[in-house]
What we know:
mainly alpha, three-stranded antiparallel sheet, 64% helix
Amino acid sequence: MDVSGAGGLTDDRVLLGRTSTAERVADILRTRIAEGYFPPGARLSEESIGGALGVSRNTLREAFRLLTHERLLVHELNRGVFVRVLAVGDVDDLYRTRRLVECAVVRGLGQPPFAVDGLAAAVDEGEAAARAEDWTGVSTANIHFHRELVALAGSARTDELMRGVLAELRLAFHVVDDPRALHAPYLLRNREILDALRAGERASAERLLARYLDDSRTRVTAAYAEAVDDPAGSAG
């Protein structure tokens, strides 16, 4: 797939300010990839993206290099840079990582009350998107929920780790044909986790989260395997 345009990136030029850096460009592109503007398999045009953001080719190539290191992009010799297509084994591994990190965050929260305003906003966002039949919006809200959950740890390093994990996992979500079936069951479960944390029931919230992630891992891996016709689940 060749993306001839730049996914509305001209509007993002203001985010670069006067101190344009490869890291800021990478952050913009990471967000755009996670939101599906550049879907898995899409070829990224240096000319279109560089022109839209008003950055040099060298800056853009460095941003591409950073995102390749994060496993969001791949460089193919004599063909260009493409948004990565995950293998089923990658999806399974991402869920293992999520379970390790997210459950550990909840387990280590300390004493209530917990600062759950961000989680509550993400739950409300997802429910509003579902009422509007906006299932891409539900997916985005779900990502926001898990980012806010990890943010409870108060660790910039953990936030950065999960930002990459969730952005990479979003590549799988974009391939699945039925986003409603994929995401709708977890709206209620997000609220259940929120309610447990509001009540100060950390152990209950961790149990709910562990079951949630185990069930999601099974459903998403199976749906993704069917979508990409990779029953062997080989990791790439």
